[in-house]
């Protein structure tokens, strides 16, 4: 039994929080990525005709927050008591509010597809009130957790939200150091750290060393060939000189 997550290709606001939870819990799963152009063809097979959808043994669970909560429950990250759970829920539902705030103008999609400038500014303005409230709240906690000073699903899901928006909208977090610190702390957690989609890919050290050796080898080979040609040429000149003088009649010397 392997979990399957159905969503569009690439990063998505409604699927990434579930993926962060899966990464943190080291729960194996497969992504079923649907190309945009294929969506009209396949959408009727999904409940509510929307994605993300979680599949297990051929059965489907729709609704992003239901999917997140399913894994949060498995990982005992819902909160320690009813009050904590309600607070964590509230933070997770606020992510949906940010999506709603940006959705009418499809701002994130526009920026991600290269239409930057004014759209970046507009997105930053729409997200600012959320960031101000979060920054203020984090100053009342240990700075690394939103609820109860210990890890809950709200930390993982909310950190993902701001990390992702921060990648798309430049300088978004500049005025919000507490949010940045919180987000970075979550992304340093085991499992999440290895998963992070935002890190620069690892430098290809082995390929780089092979390439450098290849270049050095090629230069050395070229120098050897050149040296051999020069030595050969000098030898030929000396021989030619000798031959030339040996052919000059003695009485002319
Ligand atoms: N409340 C749903 C909303 C799902 C939703 O709107 N998904 C979008 C992608 S993020 C979708 O399926 N869009 C394609 C469509 O509406 O045809 C959830 O949280 O899962």
From TrEMBL:
Reaction it catalyzes: RX + glutathione = an S-substituted glutathione + a halide anion + H(+)
Residue ranges of the TM segments: 208-234
Keyword Transmembrane helix: yes
BP-aspect Gene Ontology terms: glutathione metabolic process
Domain GST N-terminal: 1-79
GO MF annotation terms: glutathione transferase activity
Pfam families: GST_C_3, GST_N
Keywords carried by this UniProt record: Membrane, Transferase, Transmembrane, Transmembrane helix
Alphabetized Gene3D superfamilies for the sequence: 1.20.1050.10, Glutaredoxin
InterPro entries for this protein: Glutathione-S-Trfase_C-like (IPR010987), Glutathione-S-Trfase_C_sf (IPR036282), Glutathione_S-Trfase (IPR040079), Glutathione_S-Trfase_N (IPR004045), GST_C (IPR004046), GST_superfamily (IPR050213), Thioredoxin-like_sf (IPR036249)
Start and end residues of each GST C-terminal domain: 81-205
Enzyme Commission number(s) from the entry: 2.5.1.18
Enzyme class, first EC level, given as a word: transferase
Family statement drawn from the similarity comment of this UniProt entry: Belongs to the GST superfamily. Sigma family.
Name of this protein: glutathione transferase
The organism's taxonomic lineage, starting at the top: Eukaryota, Metazoa, Ecdysozoa, Nematoda, Chromadorea
């Amino acid at each position: 039994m392997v979990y399957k997550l159905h969503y569009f290709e690439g990063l998505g606001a409604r699927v990434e929080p579930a993926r962060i939870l899966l990464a943190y819990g080291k729960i194996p799963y497969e992504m079923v990525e649907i190309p945009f152009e294929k969506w009209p063809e396949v959408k009727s097979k999904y409940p509510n005709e929307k994605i993300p959808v979680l599949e297990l043994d051929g059965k489907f669970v729709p609704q992003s927050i239901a999917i997140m909560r399913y894994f949060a429950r498995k990982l005992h990250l819902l909160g320690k008591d009813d009050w904590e759970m309600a607070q964590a829920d509230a933070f997770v539902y606020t992510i949906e509010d940010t999506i709603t705030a940006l959705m009418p103008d499809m701002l994130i999609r526009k920026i991600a597809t290269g239409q930057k400038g004014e759209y970046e500014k507009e997105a930053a303005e729409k997200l600012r009130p959320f960031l101000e409230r979060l920054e203020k709240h984090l100053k009342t906690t240990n700075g690394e957790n939103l609820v109860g000073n210990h890890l809950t699903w709200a930390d993982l899901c909310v950190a993902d939200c701001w990390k992702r928006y921060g990648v798309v909208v430049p300088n978004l977090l500049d005025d919000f150091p507490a949010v940045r610190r919180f987000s970075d702390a979550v992304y340093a957690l085991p499992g999440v750290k290895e998963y992070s989609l935002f890190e620069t890919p690892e430098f290809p050290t082995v390929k780089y060393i092979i390439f450098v050796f290849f270049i050095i080898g090629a230069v050395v080979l070229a120098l050897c060939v050149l040296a051999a040609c020069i030595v050969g040429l000098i030898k030929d000149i000396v021989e030619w000189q000798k031959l030339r003088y040996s052919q000059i009649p003695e009485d002319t010397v």
